[in-house]
Amino acid sequence: IRCPVKECDEEILHGKYGQHLSSHKEMKDGEVYSYINKGGRPRQHLLSLTRRAQKHRLRELKRQVKAFAEKEEGGDIKAVCMTLFLLALRAKNEHKQADELEAIMQGKGSGLHPAVCLAIRINTFLSCSQYHKMYRTVKAVSGRQIFQPLHALRTAEKALLPGYHPFEWKPPLKNVSTNTEVGIIDGLSGLPLSIDDYPVDTIAKRFRYDAALVCALKDMEEEILEGMKLRNLDDYLNGPFTVVVKESCDGMGDVSEKHGSGPAVPEKAVRFSFTVMNISIAHGNESKRIFEEVKPNSELCCKPLCLMLA
């Protein structure tokens, strides 16, 4: 602070200002100038205060920001404060922190999307407990939640299950329900059970075929649009599309062994699934292929229809 006394004009640190003023005899009565904290505790730094004390100190500024936001920014106080914070960071060359804040404001954040975490868990063959261990370790070591917790992955997984996306067949298919909400249904319903067909007791959970197919195509939406773009086709073409599907039934081996608990029991798991092999679209007089499965024998592109425990 610059000293207000004539012919002094010295610049003094804020903390030593009161001491400096008291050295001027002519200023003994001119207390209007002195910013001396008269007794009591010294003024604490804003960030070290409790939330209530911060609110109290910033009350006047908050009122001004609110008035400005309502007048200029349609009442968006958050945007005004965030922008002020960004400008303050950039003014001090804290660009890394400013970039991170900007990413969070735009919903990108520094963490990975739950669907990306799910893909990582599946592609690296991690069990839920192994993934959870990794999630906790990364969070503890880095202090940031880069991976998402398991419950977020389960929510993301629901979007991949048949019955999640509403759909409508045009024209409607014969003998197919128009209801799109499909949970897991009893896989053996509607099949005449006989000793010859099922020599062992089976528990089966299956999805409705049409709902599973819609879900698989919805999951591949980006690849389909990318394929159309490569073929210079408009993404609003309404087809007809030809979808070639390979059906498969895969024995999943001894289930008890995989879990590694107790003695081996003769339980076998069987999975009925299908793979979308290729998709083509009729355009003019020719058919253009817009999608082809590169690894048709990989279990990662298998869409389950029925899981059976025998």
TrEMBL record:
EC number(s) stated in the UniProt entry for this protein: 2.3.2.27, 3.1.-.-
Coiled coil ranges: none
Subcellular location: Nucleus
Residues covered by the RAG1-type domain: 1-28
PROSITE patterns for this protein: NBD, ZF_RAG1
GO terms, biological process: adaptive immune response; B cell differentiation; chromatin organization; T cell differentiation in thymus; V(D)J recombination
Known catalytic reactions: S-ubiquitinyl-[E2 ubiquitin-conjugating enzyme]-L-cysteine + [acceptor protein]-L-lysine = [E2 ubiquitin-conjugating enzyme]-L-cysteine + N(6)-ubiquitinyl-[acceptor protein]-L-lysine
Record text on cofactor binding: Binds 1 divalent metal cation per subunit. Mg(2+) or Mn(2+).
Residues of the DNA-binding region: 39-106
SUPFAM superfamilies in UniProt: beta-beta-alpha zinc fingers
Location of the NBD domain: 39-106
Cofactor requirements of the protein: Mg(2+); Mn(2+)
UniProt main location, coarse: nucleus
Keyword list, A-Z: Chromatin regulator, DNA recombination, DNA-binding, Endonuclease, Hydrolase, Metal-binding, Multifunctional enzyme, Nuclease, Nucleus, Transferase, Ubl conjugation pathway, Zinc, Zinc-finger
TM regions (residue ranges): none
GO cellular component: DNA recombinase complex; endodeoxyribonuclease complex; nucleus
Cross-referenced InterPro entries: RAG1 (IPR024627), RAG1_DNA-bd (IPR058552), RAG1_pre-RNase_H (IPR058553), RAG1_RNase_H (IPR058554), RAG1_Znf (IPR019485), RAG_nonamer-bd_dom (IPR023336), Znf_C2H2_sf (IPR036236)
A GO MF label: sequence-specific DNA binding
Family membership: Belongs to the RAG1 family.
Subunit text: Homodimer.
Biological role stated in the UniProt entry: Catalytic component of the RAG complex, a multiprotein complex that mediates the DNA cleavage phase during V(D)J recombination. V(D)J recombination assembles a diverse repertoire of immunoglobulin and T-cell receptor genes in developing B and T-lymphocytes through rearrangement of different V (variable), in some cases D (diversity), and J (joining) gene segments. In the RAG complex, RAG1 mediates the DNA-binding to the conserved recombination signal sequences (RSS) and catalyzes the DNA cleavage activities by introducing a double-strand break between the RSS and the adjacent coding segment.
Domain text: The NBD (nonamer binding) DNA-binding domain mediates the specific binding to the nonamer RSS motif by forming a tightly interwoven homodimer that binds and synapses 2 nonamer elements, with each NBD making contact with both DNA molecules. Each RSS is composed of well-conserved heptamer (consensus 5'-CACAGTG-3') and nonamer (consensus 5'-ACAAAAACC-3') sequences separated by a spacer of either 12 bp or 23 bp.
Name under which the protein is recorded: V(D)J recombination-activating protein 1
Gene: RAG-1
